[in-house]
Amino acid sequence: MQTKPFFMLALCLALAILLPGCSSTSHRLGSKAIGIPSSSATMESLLMQPGPVELESINSADWSGPLSGLVNLSSPAAIEAGLRNREEPIQVYAHVLKHPRRGNFLVDTGIAQIVNDDPQKAGLSWLLVKSMRKESLVLRKSTAAILKDLPGKLSGVFLTHLHFDHISGMPDIPDDVPLYVGRSESTDKYWLQVFTQGSANRLLHGKPQLQEWDFQPDPQGRLEGLIDVFEDGSVFAISVPGHTAGSTAYLVRTTKGPVLLTGDTSHTRWGWDHSVEPGAFTHYQGRNRQSLLQLKNLVSRYPNITVLVGHQP
Ligand SMILES: [Zn+2]
Hints:
- This protein is α/β, with parallel strands linked by helices.
- The protein has helices at about 5-20, 40-45, 65-70, 75-80, 115, 125-130, 145-150, 165, 195-205, 270-275, 285-300, and strands at about 20-25, 35-40, 55-65, 85-100, 105, 140, 155-160, 180, 190, 210, 225-230, 235-240, 250-255, 255-260, 305-310.
- A 7-stranded mixed beta sheet has the order 6-3-4-5-7-8-10. A 6-stranded mixed beta sheet has the order 2-11-12-13-14-15. It has a two-stranded antiparallel ribbon with strand order 1-9.
- The longest helix has 17 residues, at about 285-300.
- It is globular, with a radius of gyration of 19 Å.
- The N and C termini lie far apart (about 55 Å).
């Protein structure tokens, strides 16, 4: 007799707590990041010349996830292709950027040894460890091993966003290394983050204040906003909100030509090839689709750009 009203009350309470959501982390936000606002015209004028950066993309771990999280299976293209939910093989990458004058940088962090060996000791909550299904994760190269192979110290980490699979290398990153994120990435409130904020806080514990890219509107309106990171046209941070509020892609002018790191604006190669945004893992699907289409338009204008999606080769 009492069960139904009690259940309704519990449900209402849970909704009242969850709906306003919470930020991805309460880690401190510091001064704005390095670099200067740029334009798509400036960036595009440089894309036919090789740049000075050496880029190495390293598969830190093999993993898998539900296709329904990685691709919007309700999109017309996915329905037409007959895609059904299944376990999809993915990888967790760290990208090493070596700039001849500015030093060594990472885009995202890979997976630290301790996150593989004892994720709860590394700071991940019991719930997060359960939901990540660690049994399907196979560490290939820990963040510490990646850093050990660098020709010198690490000068900074450019984050595509703050989801835990992108900051799981933090336990191996020295505490004095600057961390850069997109606008509102750490402050935007989203309901699921009620369950992940504690883990993100613990992974970032002891690290410097996060520095936000100072994106300004792209004068040509082709992209949301761009930062010329080293003020020499070698690396551009590109605002691609949607997957998360502050999702950021990076265009790296390497010695072998331009490379676009999309971050999780597209997790999968299929999603990129068919212009379909991610599924349940994305916070704001419409915005994500818009950002994905902006990146696709850039690459259709400059097919010499090599595209590396978030979690597949
Ligand atoms: Zn991811």
